[in-house]
Each structure stands twice: as structure tokens, then as C-alpha cells.
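Section 5.1 Outputs to date
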Amino acid sequence: DLHKEYRRQRQMCIRDREYTSAKNLLEQEFQCIKCHIKGNQMPGGSPANWAPNLAMARKRLKPEWIVKWLLDPQKLLPGTKMPSYFDPANLTVEEQDQIHALRDYILVIE
């Protein structure tokens, strides 16, 4: 399975620092877990407002699609509740790195 192999390779490549940094982006800076389910961890609020379980991403999503989604969710699904954290027209190298780190982290969430 291509996703399983990708996940295995990414787990080997993600250094502890990168993993911790991406986890911080997801949980603290962007607060994705306020809406998203993360494994067995449920967000607050009404289940009607919950976003998909991030632990299922590795089985359901292609790595390159995750990058496009994080870059501009409104472009892929107009009207989505998913906020945009990046400006595609003015994306910095640091923001590109953040998107790739988030993708890599999301693909190893269990």
C-alpha cells in the first residue's frame, strides 16, 4: 500500500524537533484540534461542528492533496469551514516548510 509505505518513510525522516514543531503548529498555533478529531481525542463543542479525524488522513488522503488543502482550502472546497492560514500569493519559504511539516505530521497521527 502506497500510503503505508509513505507513512513508514516519513516516520523515519521526521526528526524529533520537526515532529514537535509540527505538533505545536497543529495543536497550539493553528489550534486544529479545536475542530478536528485527533485519534481518540475529541474536540469541544457540538459533534455537528467537528471536522474529520486527522488520524484517518493517512488512509484517505494523498500527501500532495494535503499540501494543496492546507495552502488554500477555499480553492478546493468553496465555503468550507476550514480556515485559511496561508496566503498562496505571498507564501514565504518558512510557510512552505510549515505546510510540509504539517502534512508529514498529519500522516503519522494515530
